[in-house]
Design goal:
Bound molecules: fe (ii) ion
Strand order of the largest sheet: 1-2
Shape: globular
Distance between the termini: 30 Å
Low-confidence stretches: none
CATH superfamily: nmb1532 protein domain like
Number of strands: 2
Helix content: over 70%
Length: about 190
């Protein structure tokens, strides 16, 4: 399989892990149970800085090529590009609410729960559409030559949380998820830099 497709697929698995964590923090908020706003803020920082900026940039490269080679995908790919903007906006707005609560501002619980739930559901639906339709189609129609060129264009994987090198700014989030979800979430060769 191409490097690029493998990375996109692995990113989706990792993003689903973070969405699970975000969802459980939202449920705790909704139930007025203890919740960890710093971790929720870190999780959203990862989603905005990695998923929105790096993961979606990789997809944009691959989907632009797919759109040329398989014109029947054009409409869906244009929807996906629009959703990338929408997800960034929803994620940023949700993170702003999380930070407001963290800094002691009054935010209606229903508002933050609704915003967070909408963000999580939108991103799950988006990733399913990509996995079930576009990645599948890309594997069918893109050639080894296409992938060789695309792999050159997008560069190496740089996941700052689930990659080999964990960036210091994600250390607390990393420790939290390994504590919560166990060693399955640990990169086999991880180290904090
Ligand atoms: Fe996407
Ligand atoms: Fe994606």
């Amino acid at each position: 399989m191409s490097d690029l497709i493998s990375q996109i697929h692995q990113d989706h698995l990792n993003m689903a892990r973070i969405l699970k964590l975000i969802n459980s923090e939202i449920e705790a908020l909704a139930a007025e149970e203890p919740r960890n706003l710093e971790i929720l803020d870190d999780a959203m920082r990862y989603m905005i800085n990695f998923a929105d900026k790096i993961h979606h940039a990789k997809e944009d490269i691959m989907l632009s090529r797919l759109r040329e080679v398989a014109p029947e995908t054009r409409e869906m790919i244009e929807d996906i590009f629009a959703e990338h903007q929408e997800i960034f906006k929803k994620g940023t707005e949700f993170q702003e609410l999380v930070r407001a609560v963290e800094f002691g501002d009054f935010v209606l619980r229903d508002k933050i729960v609704a915003k967070g739930t909408d963000y999580v559901n939108t991103l799950y639906a988006h990733m399913s559409k990509e996995e079930e339709n576009l990645l599948k189609r890309a594997r069918e129609v893109l050639t080894d030559e296409d992938f060789a060129e695309l792999d050159l264009n997008h560069g190496p994987e740089v996941d700052p949380l689930f990659g080999e090198k964990i960036q210091k700014e994600y250390k607390d989030l990393y420790t939290y998820i390994v504590d919560q979800y166990g060693d399955d979430w640990r990169h086999p060769a991880h180290r904090v830099v």
